[in-house]
Design a protein that fits this description.
234 residues, mainly beta, Lipocalin, 13-stranded antiparallel sheet, 13 strands, 74% strand, elongated, OM_adhesin/peptidase_omptin, Peptidase_A26_omptin
Amino acid sequence: MGRLDSPWGVFLKGNIGLGRFDKGHMNDEDWGLPPNLSYVNTISGQANGRYTYYTADVGYDFLRAANYNVGGFIGWTYYEQSSDSRGCVQIAAPPPCLAPDDDQVVGSQNTQWNAARVGLSAETMLTERWRLNADVAYLPWTDFKGRDHHLLRPTTMFDEQRSNGGRGVQVEGVLSYFVTRNFSVGVGGRYWAMWTNSRSDSLCSSSGCVEPTMLAKYSMERWGTFFQASYKLD
């Protein structure tokens, strides 16, 4: 996370990140599918996972002292994630889709979230070199776009999902150590959640889709720890 302060209390801040993952699982549940209109549930592993994100904010410190600042901000956030689904084990409604040891790629998913942010930011110097930062943001509006590829079919297909007008929340805290006056390293924790409203559109856009439009709801949650390095401009 980087932050640029002015003598008048106005500040600019933001962060950017990327990562990979090769673990996890994906459940694919369906109801009312032909020919018997039964409930179907399969589980697959995840591989080749990638994600990127950024936040960018402008704010004003309405409380300022020698060792702490408290301010409000508005800004924007973006999060994208993609991964492959490998293997397929039937949990409900046989027959099995693949053998348990078959780990071929059966699908892929890509999701993109954009959202406006409004919130509070605070920082305090615990000692001469240790600093604690915390951000709490409410997302009053979200825009979601996703694509879900189905490869384990005689004719491959994909579904597109789109929605806007949802909500979300982002909470983050960082404990940093100043190596020099301007350069610091830190460790932090983060919780992000975004969701669409109940009238989201799920658009089937390729061969095999029967219903052109279905109502659906989508959500994402992400939490964990991270390491960061930042440079503060005077």
